[in-house]
Specification:
Layout: E1 6-10, H1 23-29, E2 34-36, E3 42-43, H2 52-65, E4 70-75, H3 78-84, E5 91-97, E6 122-123, E7 128-130, H4 136-140, H5 146-155, E8 158-160, E9 178-183, H6 191-198, E10 203-207, H7 213-216, H8 218-229
Parallel strand pairs: 1-2, 1-4, 4-5, 5-9, 9-10
Antiparallel strand pairs: 3-8, 6-7, 7-8
Helix pairs in contact: 1-8, 2-3
Length: 240
């Protein structure tokens, strides 16, 4: 039997490793380790923001440092990052959690409908973006406990605008098996928008949550991720 994989968790725009704080112990209680990254394009200092290429490098390095099989999970913008990153043979599956899944040559924002950016994207003159007041809960945390949603809102950071114009140079999902976890109650990336990406994945599973199930339903999400890791095509078998 193959070993139990490690989950590499990649956050989305304006967030950070903190967003996985409930999911990680839920995975650990079930015998699974996880590793998080802190994407350079997202920071509390708008003057010190990296690019999508910087984010992909961090993910590539994190995956290489893990001993054994790795399942990479990208949330929202994190889906663009895990698509751009490079992996060795230890990377067994890419999981797109309510995420962008761009193809080679496309920027992830090129998939958005024409017109204004979503209301939760607040562009600033310094080259960063921030979530405007009152937008985070309906967009990201609609099904979270109010106190938890307020805490998460307080953790949000600045996001570099440079990520909007970076075309994907390699779509890792074209060479690594992929699963799309479609969030059926998502207000930030509506289900129909997610389905545009889901058709590209090797497997699609639906999950009844808003945009942040790692906060609203961490135990259920942990069970789903474990099922994905050990499911389709027998790519990973449960350790005996």
């Amino acid at each position: 039997m193959r070993e139990v994989p490690t989950f590499l968790l990649v956050h989305g725009s304006w967030h950070g490793p903190w967003c996985w704080d409930l999911l990680r112990p839920a995975l650990e209680r079930r015998g699974y380790q996880s590793v998080t990254v802190d994407l350079p394009s997202c920071s509390t200092d708008p003057a010190r923001l990296g690019t999508l290429a910087d984010d992909a490098r961090i993910v590539s390095e994190a995956a290489a440092a893990i001993s054994g099989d790795v399942v990479i999970v990208g949330h929202s913008y994190g889906g663009a990052v895990i698509s751009e990153a490079s992996y060795g043979p230890k990377a067994k599956r890419l999981v797109y959690l309510g995420a962008f899944m761009p193809d080679t040559g496309r920027t992830f924002v090129s998939y958005l409908p024409p017109g204004d950016l979503p209301p939760y994207v607040g562009l600033r003159d310094d080259g960063s973006s921030a979530v405007p007041d009152g937008q985070s809960v309906p967009a990201f945390y609609a099904d979270c406990d109010p106190a938890l949603a307020a805490w998460a809102t307080g953790q949000l950071r600045y996001q570099s605008q440079s990520i909007f114009g970076h075309p994907i140079t390699q779509a890792a999902w074209r060479s690594i098996p992929s699963t799309y976890l479609l969030l059926t109650q998502d207000n930030a990336l509506p289900p129909d928008f997610q389905r545009m990406f889901a058709v590209q994945a090797d497997e699609v599973r639906e999950f009844a949550s808003s945009h942040s199930p790692f906060l609203s339903r961490p135990d259920d999400l942990a069970e789903l991720l474990i099922s994905v890791a050990h499911g389709r095509n027998g790519l990973l078998q449960r350790a005996s």
